[in-house]
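Hey L., structure's done. Input below.
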Amino acid sequence: MKVGIVCPYDLGEYGGVQQHCEELTSHLRSSGIDSILIGVGSIRLQGGPGTGNATVPVGRAVKIRANASNVPLTMSPMSWKRMRDALDGVELVHIHEPMMPLAGWAALKTDKPTVMTFHADAPAWARRVYARAPFVAERMRSSVLTAVSEAAKRSIPPAWGDVRIIPNAIDVAGYDLPVGRVKHRIAFLGRDDPRKGLDIALEAFGLIHEEHPDSELMVMGADRSEEIHGVRFMGRVTEGEKHRMLASSAIYVAPNTGGESFGIVLAEAMAAGCAVVASDLEAFRAVAGDNAVFFPVGDVAALAREMAGLLEDERERTRLGEAGREAVKAYDWSMVLDMYRQAYADAMADR
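Output:
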């Protein structure tokens, strides 16, 4: 079986969906299932059977404002034809975010066995559009539908059929590195979009830094020209740099303001043994459960109190880190890959 994995977002940009699609493709190939990743950009994937590039680019991306974020999509009509051409040689299509233009729409037109994965907690207006699209409903009912969380599942109209939850995944063992943990190091990872909450993290850190002058905030994924004492803007980091930074950090802060359906960054921080402080979002609680400290969304003073409390309490930091490492095993690729393999088998059998 050859699987075509469709990602509508720019593979050259950091994002949870892109990361998930890239890692899924690599793990499938390593497990003996031939697969290609079809999307915007041209990141080369290694591992598993087959030769050459495992990624097929279908167009260039432009950034569209959606879900309180800048979403890098392809809007070129040429991407439609390129998508259809790329799918000619596969036996099964796995579309991520199938309602996204234009690549997702082109993939929907294929008559091959299909698995659809919904990642986003879609806003109310988008859900209304989904519910009023009968031509899409018929295609959805003939596919295996999956969602990464209950929040993402709510975006799918009941008329489309049953939906199975298959969460995002990480390679848990890869975050357990033999590096020294800096007891007053706080990490942030995310794009510089308002809903990722970087400004909230910076303001809260400013409130505690005078009392904790040895504390430092390491910002991965965002780069600003301003100089803030104790803050280091690292910009986009490699996977290796990300793993090492999380493994060396005592606290991970996730001050996101909304629009999250899973929270892969929480899983990564938990796997690295960080004590996690996160906005009280449904998706974040679903991932971390009792293994994180939560604060009201957007409450800078509350975030500062929680960070300061953990900086002063090594025992609690250690307890949260150890508990998180145990809980995150449920999101290891060894567990999640089997769920997708079963979805593929069911889609092939249904067709």
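Residues 42-53 have pLDDT under 50 and may be disordered. The longest strand covers residues 2-10.

-- N.
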